[in-house]
């Protein structure tokens, strides 16, 4: 209780003014706080007094911002617009208390604010509106909580399992060369509703996403930093459209690779690539930021008899 009273008081301070010098009067506030992002704003009451100001934000989860033992994140921007300077930070963690102070530098003179604080909210659950063509489930298919991986499926199968091979794959006769559906003979490239695990298990309009919908999510989101959320490592995606957040957990395979493989509903996704009925499109493969940046939109292909997760979507 004392902790939250302190944080409330710190947040309230963000609405107060701090006068530093004859021409430098500004207010400081933490705005648009989400589970993983914050916008820190310094508002200047006399913008005409500024020529080339610089705003620096010092941010830390430690209340002792000025301790030599703590190195706060240092963020800066040189833009001033309508008397306002803004820093957007996308690498926070949910349900954490953060503290910050702002320095405005004008003509070599430092003008420092008091210390402020805020608390990030928890990650959202349920149906997540990212401002896109479809809404997204907050958890993988088969998971009840955000920190659960959920079930793994072979592509086109509606029952989860733990062992995956061509020998036990539903749509073949034991090998990848003996496909019985979604093959060159029938020419099907997208799952029928009865073979869509999300549609069958969740009902209604829920279904697996298309490659286009996955690409839309990736293109319109900022990737947060890798976090450990309630014991589960993963990465949040923050919508650049409405600021909402969705979390994708990892499955660690070894010391150098982390996977978040998710099936799409398509064999080739109309990507312009060649048609190969053995290999549907997966997205988020090896979804650490370093790897994703080397893969176009995080896409790759995987044998349809192999295991991957499913993140359902809900059309409008």
Structure description:
The protein is mostly beta strands and 316 residues long. It folds into two domains: 2-119, Immunoglobulins (Immunoglobulin-like); 124-316, no CATH class. Helix content is 10%, strand content 29%. The protein contains four helices and 21 strands. It has helices spanning 2-13, 197-202, 211-219, 289-292, and strands at 17-19, 25-31, 38-44, 54-60, 73-77, 84-89, 97-106, 109-112, 116-119, 127-128, 134-137, 221-223, 227-229, 232-239, 245-249, 251-252, 258-259, 262-263, 281-283, 299-301, 313-315. The strands form six sheets. Strands 4, 5, 7, 8 and 9 form a five-stranded antiparallel beta sheet that branches. A hairpin with a 2-residue loop joins strand 13 (227-229) and strand 14. The two termini are 41 Å apart. The model is unreliable at 1-23, 253-258 and 286-297 (pLDDT under 50).
């Amino acid at each position: 209780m004392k902790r939250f009273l302190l944080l409330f008081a710190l947040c309230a301070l963000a609405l107060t003014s701090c006068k530093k010098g004859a021409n430098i009067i500004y207010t400081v506030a933490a705005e648009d706080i989400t589970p993983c992002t914050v916008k820190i704003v310094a508002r200047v009451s006399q913008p005409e007094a500024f020529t080339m100001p610089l705003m620096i934000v010092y941010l830390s989860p430690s209340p002792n911002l000025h301790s030599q033992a703590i190195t706060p994140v240092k963020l800066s921007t040189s833009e001033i617009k309508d008397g306002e300077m803004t820093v957007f930070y996308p690498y926070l963690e949910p349900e954490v208390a953060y503290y910050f102070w702002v320095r405005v530098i004008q003509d070599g003179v430092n003008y420092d604010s008091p210390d402020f604080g805020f608390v990030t909210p928890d990650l959202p659950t349920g149906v997540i509106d990212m401002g896109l063509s479809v809404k997204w489930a907050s958890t993988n298919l088969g998971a009840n909580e955000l920190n659960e991986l959920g079930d793994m499926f072979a592509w086109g199968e509606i029952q989860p399992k733990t062992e995956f091979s061509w020998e036990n794959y539903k749509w073949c006769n034991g090998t990848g060369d003996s496909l019985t559906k979604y093959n060159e003979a029938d020419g099907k490239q997208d799952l029928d509703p009865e073979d869509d695990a999300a549609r069958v298990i969740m009902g209604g309009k829920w279904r697996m996403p298309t490659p286009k919908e996955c690409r839309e999510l990736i293109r319109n989101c900022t990737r947060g930093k890798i976090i450990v959320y309630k014991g589960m490592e993963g990465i949040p995606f923050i919508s650049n459209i409405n600021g909402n957040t969705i979390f994708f957990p990892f499955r660690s395979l070894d010391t150098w690779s982390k996977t978040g493989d998710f099936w799409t509903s398509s064999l080739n996704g109309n990507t312009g690539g060649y048609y190969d009925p053995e290999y549907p499109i997966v997205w988020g493969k090896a979804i650490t930021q370093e790897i994703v940046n080397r893969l176009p939109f995080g896409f790759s292909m995987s044998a349809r008899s192999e295991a991957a997760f499913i993140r359902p979507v809900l059309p409008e």
